[in-house]
């Protein structure tokens, strides 16, 4: 009697298989091994891939994951810190029951998940985002340190770049909290060393000193209690929004177009949920910094939409320098609508630069179709 071959579910499969194939592979692997811990960590890697992917890889292995959390929570003690990434797999009643099974009380839940929530709560919806249409897919080349300090490389294919550098690195740093990827007993993905989009034009690099980013990972999780205490104190200091809402002085004198270009530089705000769009735009106006550099820090009882309306009116007052009144400020919805127009304009200009660099000209130029010179 021959033993059945174990289905492969390693780094290569997680970074390359399509969603239907992965759903099937996850189920086969769990049936063959009953290794719930491995399945949960593997699913987190697919979520990170989905964050960047143009494909829809959201809610990978949906039924298998639900079965594990509903019926095998006793086996998940070592990966409790990852549970926050799976909340959207369940309704509120189911999720509360799962938390009750995983943690003794709410304070333990907050302590165990503090670092993950602090660094990834703002991008968590994007781990489950659907398909993204782009003209030219990119590849994301990654370099991570292992436990010995040696560098290891891998590539996520067919990706887009729609988020800020910090958001991208926050998502990639999730991989450094996983322990299942190793060779000869040496764990990979302990710290992100370098990440780069492979495109015809220059793109971001997490090691770029002009736009520094903060990296986090397993080292922070190992000091969870201390980090949680420090984070709680810091959060208390920065949580409340000002009592009197006023646009930052950095916005003084900016026209509508200049305000828009300043706020939405380098980020596709329309890829975020509506609440996130409004919250981050309001916080950016309060702090006088681009949206890509802020995170939502409003208290639960505050209304970001109402705050944003106040800020837009305040900005409009500062902009008025003539006796005759100018038209009223754009509403937040108008700003978000303009973002798409701005993005298309930027992409068109970028494509024109690429065409120029490649020597392509139109029908009336010296070169014909596909940039080839016509024969005389």
Automatic annotation (TrEMBL):
<protein>
    <recommendedName>
        <fullName>DUF1524 domain-containing protein</fullName>
    </recommendedName>
</protein>
<feature type="region of interest" description="Disordered">
    <location>
        <begin position="228"/>
        <end position="248"/>
    </location>
</feature>
<feature type="compositionally biased region" description="Basic and acidic residues">
    <location>
        <begin position="334"/>
        <end position="358"/>
    </location>
</feature>
<feature type="compositionally biased region" description="Basic residues">
    <location>
        <begin position="359"/>
        <end position="376"/>
    </location>
</feature>
<feature type="region of interest" description="Disordered">
    <location>
        <begin position="322"/>
        <end position="376"/>
    </location>
</feature>
